[in-house]
Amino acid sequence: MLVPLLVSSIAAGLLSVTTYFPYKNHLKLHGDTLDKAALSSNHLLNIENCYPISTRLPHEPAASVEPQFCEDVVLDQRSGMAYLSCDPTRLTWDARAGIYEDGSDKLASEYGTPAIWAWDTHKRGLARKLYISLPPPEYPIQPPADLRSTFHPLGIAVTASHPYFVEEVDEGVEPRPPPPANLVIVANKPYADRPGVVDIFVHDLDKIGRKDHATLRWLKRVEGEALTGTHVDMDTPFKVDPFRIAVFEEQYSQPFDRDYPEPQHVRDNPDHLAGFHDDDVAGKALRSIRIPSFFVTSLPDRSGSSVAKGRSSLFSAVWQPVASLLSSHYSLSSDPTTRKVFLHHSSINKTLSVRLDGTDPEQWEGFPPLLQTWNGGGKAAGANSSATALYIPSLGADSAKVQEWEQHWVRGIAGGIRDHNVLHKSTTSDGQPNNLLRIYKTYTPSFVQFFAAEHEMPVRAMVVDPHGRTWTAGNPSTRAVEDWLAFQRDERRRRLGLPVSSGTLSSSDRPPRPAGRIDQTTYVFRHFGSVVAHPWESDKLKLKKQKGVFLRKEFHTFNVFKSPQETKAESESRSEEEERKRGFLPTVPTGLAVDIKRKLLYVAGAYEERGVAICKLPEDWIEA
After folding, report:
1. Pair 257, 288: CB distance under 8 Å
2. Distance between CA 532 and CA 502 in Å, rounded?
């Protein structure tokens, strides 16, 4: 009798020890141990350098003529064009939380419709909503009839219209001219009961209106079988529901004409792409489009379960971190699809899962997977790929980090090459079938994780600068974010006449805007002992890489911007002058873009009714 009791006591003690620290770390990670007073009084840093891209006061909501509720932002360094994917229906059509409700038509008059916005950052003008232009009936590829009415953009990526304008030239060679058009690649979630799609658009920069051209020409949609990810080894299919996109500027589709059939006003323009011969490489690049391959991450596969209604699926139970250790049934880790990275090969219009050797990144339910690629500094730093590294946030029950997955050839190049049979259907001049079966080879790179940087809170937005340094944004308190979003969602429902989950709250009972934070994680290379190299010292790095020296990294994370937790009454009590001096950051940041040359950071928030912020990187806070 004594022995079983002794064993039970020891087991209980061991269980207590093994669950206590994960439990405490979980609460710390999600901010449940943070002092609310400290978040309000001390959580303020450098946001006087941040302001809305319009001239409004920070506490004033954006008008329908300005971008708001923007999920993602991306900056094209070549043209200086920034693109924003914005959806004013976000609170009632939230793919992240699995909430899909009626009401988008009613919202149109209040906030405008979902759209892509473009902003020439080299000018002082405001961002412009881009009108989606559809091809004429004679165009061989026709868009879905409901493209404009069921457009809900999420992640966004941008690249030049042709690889000629992307290719790195050798030292001393004249640089490529700026691209005449950009390809804008958008993850779109048009329907709640089926996986999303990827729509590809052309934004012309050299036609009427030049960079102020306000038309986004639809080019192609990737969906269904073409977007069903297949495992590289086992041919296991995954239903990919696109969330974040990163361009792989190495494998392209076949070239096709850049323009739709020319309208009369273009044919009458003598300057329209004229003066080039068929053997002129630059001329062909100006007149052609080649779609690059791209990496994509996926939302959870909810096809086997009912769509959530009325609440977010984020962490809420205090006992959950302990329960997840006892049984995987209670774990809030997302399904396998969200822990993988997929590569869509535009050359064959198929999607394969990328091999991440080792353990897939952890993903916590409600925090969709983010993704950034980095070219390793390019030729100047001895790199030879546009995706030398992938940066993927990893979030477990009690730890948050950003993992750096580096491309490798341990399995040999042949390990990533696959043959694909593609049937090309065509007809002869007399209308007879003339089908060709061609064999295409694709290369799917493999990655291995060497480095990871620990973070104090879950990462909600991320971007990588040209030096390979990460900029991350998030909120110290997960529960505060979910409480605030739930209130915002109820307010939206109440205005639309939809059912609400709670009664009307008084001003004092309304949850405050959560505190926010933006960090920069830099690193140094340690070669031998105390000898270091900084990420921008490309000559040193190139020499070491050519010699095959493994470069060990040391990461250092610095807080750059902080915004406080505050109630609506606290915000409205300040004068206009105080409000302007205080600055503005989106409440829940979900998208970042960085311009190192001009020392600017662009911050978007999917749930932000006050617009988009632009932040000047403060002197003496940011390295070169």
Report:
1. yes
2. 57
Asked whether residue 166 is domain-assigned, the answer is yes
Q: 511 to each of 44, 110, 345, 507, how far by Cα in Å?
A: 19, 23, 45, 9
The structure tokens listed for 226 are: 């073409």
Is residue 215 assigned to a domain? yes
Print the domain residue range for 195: 67-301+339-350
Beta strands in 359-416 (DSSP E): 372-374, 389-395, 400-408
> pLDDT digits over 318-337, tens only?
455 555 555 554 556 778 88
Query: Token pair for residue 532?
Result: 């270091």
* pTM recorded for the entire structure: 0.90
Angle at CA of residue 251, ends 550 and 246, nearest 5° = 70
Structure tokens at 580: 């302007």
DSSP for 15-27, written as a single string: HHHHHHHHHHHHH
Residue 616 lies in a domain: no
Q: End-to-end alpha-carbon separation of the chain, Å?
A: 70
pLDDT per position as a tens digit, 109-168: 667 789 999 999 988 778 899 999 888 887 778 888 888 889 999 999 999 999 999 888
Is 188 a domain residue? Answer: yes
Alpha-carbon distances, residue 279 vs 253, 275, 282, 283, 284 (angstroms): 20, 12, 9, 8, 8
% of the chain surpassing 70 pLDDT: 83
Locate 619 and state its tokens: 């002197």
Count of domains forming the chain: 1
Cβ contact 188:195 at 8 Å? no
Q: Is residue 555 within a helix (H) or strand (E), and if so which, with residue range?
A: strand 552-563
Neighbour-count burial for 55-64, b at 16+ CB within 10 Å, e otherwise: ebbbbbebee
On whether the CB atoms of residues 371 and 391 are closer than 8 A, the answer is yes
Nearest alpha carbon to residue 380 among 558, 168, 204: 168
